[in-house]
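Hello, quick one for you while I still have it in my head. Could you read through the record and tell me how the tokens relate to the sequence? No rush at all, and the record is pasted right below.
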Amino acid sequence: MIIIHSVNKDEFETEIQSGSYGIKCMERCGFIHCSDLDTYYLVAPNFKDDYAEKVILLIETERLNCEVKWEDGGGLDFPHIYGLLNQDAIIGVVKHLWSDEREWIPNDELKEYAVNGFRRKLGK
């Protein structure tokens, strides 16, 4: 299964040089917050005021060397990685795209991994 994680590009590029990613996440939270592509639209607004260049990591859960737990995020379960993200589990890195209104724009290259086609909020 493919899950994703959004991170500042500079932070990712620095950490991945060691062969894994997530040291800062583990220090802050004890796990790496992730999402699936169909629910990321609920997560992306958390980053709209962060103007640092962001990337989205595509993570193949079957390649992870650590545990993934789906945990409640207020009525909806989100994947959390409990350990460092090994480099070979990252199957892609794409630029995080924003509209002028700072709403997430789904990348074309992510669409094949969105099971339900990037669900959207009703009325938006």
